[in-house]
Amino acid sequence: MRNKLWIILAGLLSACHPNKDEEYTLSHGDASCAFISETADGKKVISWIEAQPGADTGMMYYAIQQGDTFSTPHAIPVANNVLPHAENMPKLLFKPDGEIIAMYGVEQHDPRNQWAGRVFYTHSLDAGKTWSEPQQLVTDTSSYDQRYFDMALLPDGQAGAIWLDNRKDINAEGSTLYFAKTSGHDGFKGEHAIAETACQCCRTDLYADPKGHLHVAFRDIISDSIRDMVHLLSVDKGATFSAPVRISADNWVVRGCPHTGPAMAANSFGLHCVWFTMGGGQGVYYCHSTDEGKTYSQRDTVSVTPMAKHPQITAVGDDKLVIVWDEPVKVGREFNSRVGYQVRKGNGSVTKSGILTGDSLYVTFPVVKAVDAQTVLVAYTKKGSVCYRWLSI
Predict the structure, then answer these.
(1) Cα 205 to Cα 261: distance, rounded to the nearest angstrom
(2) What is the dihedral of CA 288, 374, 310, 359, to 10 degrees?
(3) Angle at Cα 85 formed by Cα 118 and Cα 330, nearest 5°?
């Protein structure tokens, strides 16, 4: 791995008008799990996992925006047994005080649950030059399965995390959703359960809105059989959360886990949500709330492709929203996968939809982040490589 040749394909892009038709590759080899974060001074950061030769696990890498391109990849050497799972993607978070936190999942191999995993994190206080020894997010020995985590920067400059956990106090199917936050540079403290009966294998979403309120979305198991999306709100920096409110009454009855979770963004108009369901139709849907999740608009179809999934959304100021997702596309007798995108006004009305990648490829798990009023950054996995492009909107 140390001697691996990294190639950055750089183009002459205009900072204000990047060419959306240009695709750039950050990694070559068996790479996956693209994620976008940003530094304290606003530079975008793409992270991913590069699988080690002959192994099922990999090492975490990241690259930092340098104008219209990205730096050569930086390795996080201590994050070297990461299980590549794009629905449980590793994540980076940059705190205002300069601390960088990398969080990721590993296999657990627990006889009580063959799919069990653990969440670890490491941090750097010197801009990524050195990293601490990895720490378990949960030290309680009764917790043998933590997965599908998310992190967000909190209004007080600390990092918050949520995750699904096997510990529960009720006799019902599903996992318990936990929350914890950092205490300075001493790691995550004060974990507490905030919801129960969460669908066991869908990603969760933790989001801090411009007002500093925290929003949590996840797929819940309702009445023992319905797997619909719900939302929680905290107005006290994560000390307490509201009871779950269903985002949309899809009434999807399924005995299994879809492996595709929700995503949220907010602007002055309200909270915007996207998700996948097969209840009352199938595909990716959108809705919004103007009262911080007490009530929601009727859902609106994002993609007409029935199995469109893995949606992500970003707010571009108060004027625009951009949604990305992946969807199957039939080519001859085979199915490939492509990335679609949709631009909406700040109030959620659609202005443009399109396809970002070609039908002849297999492209999955896109992520998106606003750059400026006219541009978003999109990253995704394409045939074992992590790629990105600037999308003009």
Answers:
(1) 8
(2) 130
(3) 160
- Tokens matching residue 378: 């999109």
Residue 49 · residue 58 · CB < 8 Å: yes
Q: Is 304 exposed, middle or buried (0-12, 13-18, 19+ CB in 10 A)?
A: exposed
pLDDT one-digit tens code per residue, 295-345:
999 999 999 898 999 999 999 999 999 999 999 999 999 999 999 999 999
pLDDT in tens, 224-251: 999 999 999 999 999 999 999 999 999 9
Q: Strand, coil or helix: what is 88?
A: helix
- Report which of 163, 160, 147 is spatially closest to residue 209, judged by C-alpha positions: 160
SS3 of residue 331 by DSSP: strand
Which residues have C-beta within 8 Å of that of residue 375, sequence separation ≥ 6? 16, 18, 390, 391, 392, 393
* Radius of gyration (C-alpha) of the chain in whole angstroms: 20
Q: How far apart are alpha carbons 35 and 92 in whole angstroms?
A: 8
Q: Is 215 exposed, middle or buried (0-12, 13-18, 19+ CB in 10 A)?
A: buried
Round to whole Å and give the CA distance between 46 and 276.
24
Q: Give CB contacts under 8 A, 24+ apart, made by 13-20.
A: 13/68, 13/69, 13/390, 14/68, 15/67, 15/68, 16/372, 16/374, 16/375, 17/374, 17/392, 18/68, 18/375, 18/390, 18/391, 18/392, 19/390, 19/392, 20/356, 20/389, 20/390, 20/391, 20/392
Q: Distance between CA 220 and CA 251 in Å, rounded?
A: 11
Q: How far is 104 from 157, CA to CA, in rounded Å?
A: 21
Distance CA 239, CA 252 (A): 31
- Residue environment code for 330-364, b if the CB has 16+ CB neighbours within 10 A, otherwise e: eeeeeebbbbbbbbbebbbeeeeeeebbeeebbbb
How much is the pTM?
0.94
